[in-house]
Specification:
With about 180 residues, the protein is mainly α. It contains seven helices and no strands.
Length: about 180
């Protein structure tokens, strides 16, 4: 993938996500069963993001323990589950198609770009880690990790992962209100 496109995707992923959010507000048509199913998937994504944030020392150390033993990108995979869950809860095929496009054409190149940056930063340590752990979809078998690496709440707070929890709560409340007003 062209590095310029990866840089463009990294720069525009948040604004494009907000634009999709506006479309979502307009087009979502939640019902109780869809909200329950989608909310459950989104909640699983939120839990995965929280778990991953407790292991991440951004730009300081290569995270390989916890969920990083199953996928090299548990934060992105958790975000994917959250987005897929909210897409499901909103019950809009247009939003689903737009979300899939965002993941494929924006987030996938961003992950590949970050992979190149991590390889440049951590060298052979990252190369051996990447050979053992998949980029995105988790492997069910965990990669062995050092025993001293543990989840730490201070990392969770430093990585401001509580913001994802606030976004999850706001999304569920919005869908519930929209459903109740129909």
């Amino acid at each position: 993938m062209d590095e310029r496109y990866g840089a463009w995707a990294a720069r525009w992923r948040v604004p494009l996500g907000f634009a999709l959010g506006i479309v979502y507000v307009v087009l979502s048509q939640p019902t109780a069963p869809w909200l329950a199913a989608g909310g459950g998937v989104a909640f699983a994504g939120l839990l995965l993001r929280a778990w991953a944030a407790g292991y991440l020392e951004k730009n300081q150390k290569l995270a390989t323990a916890g969920p990083y033993a199953y996928t090299r990108n548990p934060l992105y995979f958790g975000s994917f589950l959250m987005g897929a869950g909210f897409t499901l809860a909103g019950k809009s095929w247009i939003v689903a198609a737009l979300y899939a496009s965002l993941v494929i054409f924006v987030y996938w190149p961003v992950m590949r770009r970050e992979e190149r940056q991590l390889q440049a930063r951590f060298g052979n340590l990252y190369v051996s880690y990447a050979a053992a752990v998949p980029l995105f979809l988790p492997r069910l078998r965990r990669r062995a990790t050092p025993a001293d690496e543990r989840f730490r709440w201070e990392r969770y707070r430093r990585n401001r992962e509580y913001e994802a929890a606030g976004g999850f709560a706001a999304g569920i409340i919005f869908l519930w209100i929209k459903m109740a007003l129909r």
